[in-house]
Amino acid sequence: MRLDRRHLLISALSLPLALPARAQGASLLDRVRKAGVLRVGTTGDYFPYSFRDVKTGGFLGYEIQVADRLAVDLGVKLLLVQATWPTLVAGLLARKYDIAATGVTVTPERAKAVAFSKAYLRPTFVPLILKKDAERFENWDDLDQPGVTIAVQQGTAPETMARKVFTKARILSVADPVIDFTEVLAGRAQAAFTDNLYFLTKIGREYPQLSMLTHGARPGTGTENAIMTSQGDPVWLEWLNGWVDARTRDGFFDGLFKIWFEGTGPTP
Q1: What stretch of H or E contains 100?
Q2: What is the 8-class DSSP label of residue 48?
Q3: C-alpha–C-alpha distance, residues 204 and 241, integer Å
């Protein structure tokens, strides 16, 4: 999907800050409709959820189409705002965007500060290892040992989960432009920790020397993706949840799954 004139890309730093809903006496639902614009924070670095078109520099991906449909159903324009994983929550709290849609995982840590819509996608977090190391690392317990390094992307849900499920291994947090799995390819880590859909649609196809380690998976590594927004606005959250329900019933999310995750398995 190419972005048309309804899609405006500007720096998050140049956005005017919106006043909290309670200060204005109105829900974000009313304010977005009145302004005629839905501001969506997205990272553009997470194929196929949110990534850059190399030809135009614009945003593409599963979550971009989710945001586009949401704006259409609200009857407003879509304004895509550059965000980063380490500051994703902070940017929302600073009112730099109204929602975040970039493959955001619902986590207890994030839920302390923000609200989430109902989930519409359910990836699973998995370790990635070199295929040549398959005999050394037959299961997750083999990874969770002193002397083993597991690379994770800074500020992401996989980083948070990795620190919980791998208590003996060293967790190496990397930041852009470094990518977690490239640390494995370079020999600086024995594994990376990311979601299975990302691997199946991108990493595994481009780097056949890598594989997912699924045997011995720890409980609780299944995840939920949802729209992230501010707390304290029940009218807006109720509308978002109703929208997710409606788009689930009419097959919108099933259709998107077929477009972006074809061949990865049944719709979660």
Answers
A1: strand 99-100
A2: T
A3: 33
Residue 92, burial from CB neighbour count under 10 angstroms (0-12, 13-18, 19+):
buried
pTM value > 0.70 = yes
Give 25's pLDDT tier (boundaries 50, 70, 90). low
Q: How far is CA 216 from the centre of its chain?
A: 25
Strand partners, 228: 100, 116
Q: Which residue has the tokens 């879509």?
A: 78
What distance lies between CA 53 and its chain's CA centroid? 18
Phi, psi (rounded to 5 degrees) for 101:
-140, 100
Taking the C-alpha atoms of residue 87 and residue 42, their distance in angstroms, rounded to an integer, is 11
Measure the CA–CA gap between 131 and 213, rounded to whole angstroms: 10
Distance of alpha carbon 163 from alpha carbon 136, whole angstroms: 22
pLDDT band at 239 (very low <50, low <70, confident <90, very high): very high
DSSP designation for 130: E
Find out whether the peptide bond into 48 is cis, omega within 30 degrees of 0.
yes
The pLDDT score that the predictor gives to residue 266 is 54
Q: Which two tokens stand for residue 1?
A: 């999907």
Could you please report the per-residue DSSP string of 173-223?
EE-TTS-HHHHHHTTS-SEEEEEHHHIIIIIHHH-TTEEE--TTPPTT-B-
User: What is the rounded distance in angstroms from the CA atom of residue 244 to the CA atom of residue 29?
Assistant: 15
Q: Give the pLDDT of residue 6.
A: 38
Among candidates 17, 7, 13, which has minimal Cα distance to 50?
Answer: 7
Going by the DSSP 8-state scheme, the letter that residue 67 receives in this structure is: H
Q: Mapping DSSP to helix (H, G, I), strand (E, B) and coil, where does residue 96 land?
A: coil
